Amino acid sequence: MTNSSDYTPPEIWSWKQGNGGRFASINRPVAGATHDKDLPVGRHPLQLYSLATPNGMKVTVMLEELLALGHGGAEYDAWLIRINDGEQFGSGFVAVNPNSKIPALLDRSGPSPIRVFESGAILLYLAEKFGAFLPTDIATRAECLSWLFWQMGSAPYLGGGFGHFYAYAPTKIEYAIDRFAMEAKRQLDVLDRRLAECEYLAGPNYTIADMAVWPWYGRLAEGQLYEAGTFLQVQDYLNVQRWAATIAGRPAVKRGRMVNRVTGEPSSQLHERHDAGDFATRTQDKIGAGS
Ligand SMILES: N[C@@H](CCC(=O)N[C@@H](CS)C(=O)NCC(=O)O)C(=O)O
Predict the structure, then answer these.
(1) Which residue's C-alpha comes closest to atom 16 of ligand 1?
(2) Measuring from atom 6 of ligand 1, which residue has the nearest CA?
(3) Which of 1, 20, 39, 47 is most buried by its number of CB atoms within 10 A?
(4) Is residue 103 within a helix (H) or strand (E), and if so which, with residue range?
(5) Distance, CA of 197 to CA of 277 (rounded, Å)
(6) Residue 175: exposure state from Cβ atoms within 10 A (0-12, 13-18, ≥19)
């Protein structure tokens, strides 16, 4: 690969496979399926195809929160999609999400299945379907949706920008890391100022806005994203710290963050979730490697 300082873009871009980046084996400049593969279907109304990345975690947290509230219709099967193995490019997955990214949801509770992709759209769909975690008065609802869409627009700068260049890129490019570290800190400050005004992002109550933002910025504040806690001095954002700890302590969040997780302590990994009892019996420490 050309040293970044020596690089002059050619007139026409061409794809260099295997550019050394962390995701070189799966990134492609074209969309669509690479192979035929049907998705498995379980017994519950909701079928989730995902992985416990921050975007995936949003949905499993929401589903666990809905179940904790007593919404039995939110029972779900969570199937593991190993994105590093290219499973998001199977024909069945592409039919549920033409963008080939987790999370993807299929609601089979009605006469014909409804597909939902994009984690923010999935949160909104579930909130509307069950009438939960989305304020009903127009002003608080607007605040909730504003923070939800803020997250959807902002996290690519944190993940695709800061995280990519700080942790994953094959070379450390000072310009890129500086640019995105500045933006990541600015975003933390945006949240910190908002959370100085109220307990949760939309106001006094926990909503889908918090569920969208916490897996990214809450876990960044916990020092769990990109091992960047010290670099970004996350401990200085005191309101974010308070909010992140409160959310991390919720039982549904503790469960949701385990689903489709394939890294970390074996006891924290529930590769697939098909029953509420799986948290007690099907974590990797209980069923062992290779499962
Ligand atoms: N805006 C999408 C982003 C989803 C996304 O980027 N998913 C990543 C994992 S966090 C993925 O599936 N990557 C696989 C790939 O890019 O091929 C959402 O929020 O659902």
Answers:
(1) 101
(2) 101
(3) 47
(4) none
(5) 39
(6) exposed
CB 185 within 8 A of CB 179: no
The strand ranges marked E within the chain are 46-50, 76-80, 104-107, 114-117
Which atom of ligand 1 lies at the shortest distance from residue 118's CA? 20
pLDDT at 7: 86
Which sign does the torsion angle of CA 257, 89, 153, 184 carry? positive
Instruction: Sort strands 46-50 and 76-80 into parallel, antiparallel or unpaired.
Output: parallel
For 279, the token pair is 């948290």
Residues near ligand 1 (Cβ within 6 A): 26, 53, 55, 83, 88, 100-103, 118-119
Output the CA torsion 105→110→111→113 (10° steps): 0
- In this predicted model, what pLDDT tens digit does every residue of 1-36 receive, in sequence order? 555 578 899 999 998 877 666 667 788 999 999 999
On whether the CB atoms of residues 39 and 90 are closer than 8 A, the answer is: yes
| Ligand 1 atom 15: residue of nearest CA | 101
List pLDDT tens digits, range 196-224.
999 999 999 999 999 999 999 999 999 99
Query: For residue 182, what are the contacts with CB-CB under 8 A and spacing of at least 6?
Result: none
Distances in Å between the Cα of 164 and the Cα atoms of 8, 130, 151, 160, 182 are 22, 36, 17, 5, 14
Write the DSSP string, 229-283. Answer: HHHHTGGG-HHHHHHHHHHHTSHHHHHHTTBT--SS-GGG-BS-B-STTHHHH-S
Q: What is the pLDDT of residues 111-140, one digit of tens each?
A: 999 999 999 999 999 999 999 999 999 999
